[in-house]
Amino acid sequence: MPITNNLNAFLGAAMLGVISAAGMFLVEHYRQERRRYEMAKDMARMDKELSIVKKDLQDLMNKKRERLLSFLPFVLPHRQYLTTNGGAAPPVRNSNVLHLKWGEGTFWGQKKKTQTVSLYQVLADIDRKSNEEVVEELNSCLVKLQDLCLEHPGNAELLWRIGKCHYKLLEKSEDKEFIQQQLKKGLDACTKALELAPDSGDAHKWTAILIGARSDYVPMKERIADSHLFKLHVDMALRHLPNDSTLHHMLGRFSYEVAGLKWYERKVASTLFATPPNATFEEALEHFMECEKLSNHDWKENKLFVAKCKVAQGEYKEAVTWLDEAKACKQGDCMDDKIDKEVNALLAKYNSYR
Ligand SMILES: *[C@@H]1O[C@H](CO)[C@@H](O)[C@H](O)[C@H]1NC(C)=O
Ligand SMILES: *[C@@H]1O[C@H](CO)[C@@H](O)[C@H](O)[C@H]1NC(C)=O
């Protein structure tokens, strides 16, 4: 689980780093002597953003048509997967939605006799497979989910899982066009899930994660709007899933990045684009501590961020204690290399406060 958690949260909050970096970038432009040159470059950038806006408009106009298409399954798969699943942990909380049985009625026009696998079990299987992070499995989960959507139209439990699979697929890719396709399909599915079930914590969670992931592909103004939207969906998700440690970590990352915006970055962003959200390091720390409390494993990245909040608050001695804890967590995956680097750099810097 730590692997999944880390990646989700990392991408979910990544956009805020981008906002911060972009604000800084702009300020540096005006600070430097080469002002005319920089202004020319700004003009080029504005032009570029304008063309992105134009493209977005075009996309929006095409959206309705594409949205329909994106829900059509590509193939009609076999149904061998409808075998019983050896006691996988029930993944879904809202059991009302799930008391649907297979085999009552027709199946592609064919009468089924005794299919006893519930949708609940099928979803447990899909959840297990989609958490394994294997591209082939994710693709087959998607096909299954799309297929199930035909059997059970208007089921939010299916739709947010489609969003999740699209996210997991884009996470595995470097191909920008593919990533954008997955983002769009994932967000369409989650949007539809939320229309059907506005109280679904999972639908809000995956909507937030997908919004976070699209930040690299939208112009700055929209990115700031997205940051507000991200917060809104994480808050909504937490209302229904108050014990989800990933959500607390995401909110911590959000608050940490926003709290780190300098006043002049906020000014530049507000003037040129839109008002960024507000948050403090205290709030960020609260969320990370809540994550510590709820997480069922030692989460290295979360401990690093507790330490970073402590550094931001000038509590270096405590920061070092948390860095030590982060360092003591076992190595999970390659994501941890990046985290280790930061832990070690901070330890080197604040070691004297022990
Ligand atoms: C969250 O955890 C607390 C304490 O373990 C528990 O009492 C509560 O029912 C949980 N809430 C949900 C929505 O699962
Ligand atoms: C952030 O805080 C400032 C100052 O307290 C306030 O003027 C601004 O409206 C706030 N912005 C948001 C998005 O809440």
TrEMBL record:
GO terms for molecular function: microtubule binding. It holds the Pfam family RMD1-3. InterPro entries: RMD1-3_a_helical_rpt, TPR-like_helical_dom_sf. It is found in: Cytoplasm, Cytoskeleton. The chain crosses the membrane at residues 6-27. It comes from the Eukaryota. Keywords: Cytoplasm, Cytoskeleton, Membrane, Repeat, TPR repeat, Transmembrane, Transmembrane helix. GO terms for cellular component: mitochondrion; mitotic spindle pole; spindle microtubule. Interacts with microtubules. This is Regulator of microtubule dynamics protein 1.
